Amino acid sequence: MTTNNGIILDSEAAAAYLGVSTTVLKRLTRRGYIAYVEFPSSGKVGRASRKWTKADLDAFIEEHRRKAPARETSAPTLEGKARAKRNADTFKSELSAAAVLRDLEA
């Protein structure tokens, strides 16, 4: 079934589209998070049925889309600082050794 707003889905199809159970879909609908279309009863019981448009489901998805938080970098530890200092000292001594070798070759 289609409307000018898109495809109309029953509870099983709407839940599958969202990747949730029908119970979760109905709970989200009851709490007002997801819009729905209510069809009048066609039988003796008189119970209306709910349907969901793909457009309403897409709106729910967009409204609740969240970006992943930026990954936090941890502050350097004392061990990390000591390692960085050793690396810097090694680099300096390697430069010094290179300078000595250059001087000897010259």
* Helicity range: 40-55%
Helical stretch tally: 4
SS elements, strand count = 4
Mean pLDDT: 79
Task: Profile the largest sheet.
Answer: 4 strands, antiparallel
| N-to-C SSE string, H for helix and E for strand | EEHHEEHH
- Major sheet strand order: 1-2-4-3
The CA-CA distance between the termini, in Å, is: 88 Å
Oligomeric form: single chain
**Strand content of the residues, in percent?**
5-15%
Rounded to the nearest angstrom, the radius of gyration is 32 Å
General shape:
rod-shaped
Please state the structural category: alpha+beta
Structural descriptors:
single chain; 106 residues; alpha+beta; four-stranded antiparallel β-sheet; 13% strand
Secondary structure elements and pairings:
Layout: E1 2-3, E2 6-9, H1 11-18, H2 22-30, E3 37-39, E4 49-53, H3 54-63, H4 78-105
Antiparallel strand pairs: 1-2, 2-4, 3-4
What report would you give on this structure?
The chain has 106 residues and is an alpha+beta fold. Helix content is 52%, strand content 13%. It contains four helices and four strands. The protein has helices at residues 11-18, 22-30, 54-63, 78-105, and strands at 2-3, 6-9, 37-39, 49-53. Strands 1-2-4-3 form a four-stranded antiparallel sheet. β1 (2-3) and β2 (6-9) form a beta hairpin. α1 (11-18) packs across α2 (22-30). The chain is rod-shaped. The termini are far apart.
